[in-house]
Design goal:
The protein has 136 residues and is of the alpha+beta class. It has one domain: STM4215-like (2-Layer Sandwich), CATH 3.30.2000.30. 24% of the residues lie in helices and 40% in strands. A five-stranded mixed beta sheet has the order 1-2-3-5-4, covered by helices on one side. Strand 2 and strand 3 form a beta hairpin. The radius of gyration is 15 Å and the shape is elongated.
């Protein structure tokens, strides 16, 4: 499994099992899909990036994962609350990744915007992680 996929699985699992998140977004709406309209409200796996780390043995990676938060609302209050719950869930404990050690994981940015439809709010939460392969 790639480091990016291991992070994706761990993050989606963490969010779906964190009550502060699921009180705002049902666990079934925390998904990896590519469709519109999205469930309301929803946390949808977005873009990612995997960069080689700094170790000379090339066993570490710096990962970036975007989560798209969608909610039918004219303001931004709801998506900001969901993004805050995501940040708290990621901070709560070290992520456990299959085949990798997660040395650091944080929400490195949150952006909030109104959809041009005038009825939907959108947030993009970027998670950044430093992981290293577990010796087998």
């Amino acid at each position: 499994m790639s480091a990016a996929l291991a992070l994706q699985v761990a993050v989606l699992s963490r969010l779906a099992s964190t009550s502060a998140v699921t009180e705002l977004v049902p666990a079934d709406n925390i998904v990896d899909i590519n469709s519109r309209p999205s469930p309301d409200p929803a946390v949808i796996l977005g873009e990612g990036q995997e960069l080689e780390g700094d170790r000379t043995d090339r066993s570490d990676s710096r990962l970036f994962l975007d989560l798209h938060v969608w909610k039918r609302e004219t303001g931004l209050e709801g998506v900001k609350a969901i993004a805050g719950a995501i940040r708290s869930a990621i901070r709560a404990a070290r992520l456990v990744l299959d085949g990798y050690h997660c040395g650091d994981c944080r929400v490195s940015s949150m952006r909030f915007m109104r959809d041009p439809d005038g009825e939907t709010a959108h947030a993009v939460v970027t998670i950044e992680a430093l992981v290293s392969e577990v010796a087998s």
